Amino acid sequence: MVLQDLGRRINAAVSDLTRSSNLDEKAFDAMVKEICNALVEADVNIKLVASLRTAIKRKVNFKELAPGVNKKRVIQKAVYDELVELVNPHDKAFTPKKGKPNVIMFVGLQGSGKTTSCTKLARWYQARGFKSCLVCADTFRAGAFDQLKQNATKAKIPYYGSLTQTDPVAVAREGVDKFKKERFEVIIVDTSGRHRQEADLFNEMVQIQEAVKPDDTIMVLDASIGQQAEAQSRAFKDSAGFGSIIITKTDGAAAGGGAISAVAATRTPIVFIGTGEHMLDLERFQPQAFISKLLG
Ligand code: GDP
């Protein structure tokens, strides 16, 4: 199910109820059930869906609604507020400051869209007046440096990497040191992924973190990750730790409910979403704006 379909389904459930002539508790329960089914089918974590159901029902307590109250408004607001709550980490994300080096390290599985998102983010900050650059600490995947080089060149972003150095920690340290000396303000470090969560990937991430002391670590999650998002994001959080999330491929076939659930599992804010393969396909994520757009 694509994200728009999830939005349409939730919307339809709410408007079917609020337009119907008998707005009673039974019809209300059916609406809540339909919203929950849609969320589960979109891979939102079952426990989260259960707490959303409880919260909506608590807010719209039919027996206690005063006679004059606009039930339609109460229901619409409860659904909207609880969907916002679902993606609200209650934690503020890191934002870079001008005039100092801000080191941002990326982590994630191979193919999640890390390298693409690194360039998108460097370009994003460059367009907003930050002197930005990229460091390729992925010495694991053949061709990783070439890919970053191509992206960076297209976006006119200075980059650092090595075709001969095989130690990712050394490359990361050298690149970050060099760009710090050159007074870059946003220094983005791309690291290698693996196909699965593996001990050597986590060890490498921790070592790079110790070497470059990032101001923020961003985990990249593919929107199609599904129900394993919670376990995966917890595993990353427990080893390397991260302060922000980017969800990629929100333009694809998956509604991204799994990735959205990672927010609640790790209480980490989503900062951006990837909306396509192009350099400019990056949007800032804000819970309220996201849910408003989802619901059209
Ligand atoms: P990495 O292995 O994590 O570095 O992943 P890449 O950055 O190489 O991305 C893997 C694939 O996903 C590439 O073909 C990208 O073009 C694609 N990709 C990344 N982000 C997005 C996105 O937001 N939307 C779409 N449609 N494709 C994306």
UniProtKB/TrEMBL annotation:
Molecular function as annotated in GO: 7S RNA binding; endoplasmic reticulum signal peptide binding; GTP binding; GTPase activity
Keywords associated with the record: Cytoplasm, Endoplasmic reticulum, GTP-binding, Hydrolase, Nucleotide-binding, Ribonucleoprotein, RNA-binding, Signal recognition particle
Catalytic reaction equation(s): GTP + H2O = GDP + phosphate + H(+)
GO BP, sorted A to Z: SRP-dependent cotranslational protein targeting to membrane, translocation
Quaternary state and interactors: Fungal signal recognition particle consists of a 7S RNA molecule (scR1) and at least six protein subunits: srp72, srp68, srp54, sec65, srp21 and srp14.
Domains as described in the record: The NG domain, also named G domain, is a special guanosine triphosphatase (GTPase) domain, which binds GTP and forms a guanosine 5'-triphosphate (GTP)-dependent complex with a homologous NG domain in the SRP receptor subunit srp101. The two NG domains undergo cooperative rearrangements upon their assembly, which culminate in the reciprocal activation of the GTPase activity of one another. SRP receptor compaction upon binding with cargo-loaded SRP and GTPase rearrangement drive SRP-mediated cotranslational protein translocation into the ER. The M domain binds the 7SL RNA and the signal sequence of presecretory proteins.
Role played: Signal-recognition-particle (SRP) assembly has a crucial role in targeting secretory proteins to the rough endoplasmic reticulum (ER) membrane. SRP is required for the cotranslational protein translocation for ER import and preferentially recognizes strongly hydrophobic signal sequences. It is involved in targeting the nascent chain-ribosome (RNC) complex to the ER and is proposed to participate in the arrest of nascent chain elongation during membrane targeting. SRP54 binds to the signal sequence of presecretory protein when they emerge from the ribosomes.
Stated family: Belongs to the GTP-binding SRP family. SRP54 subfamily.
Name of the molecule in the record: Signal recognition particle 54 kDa protein
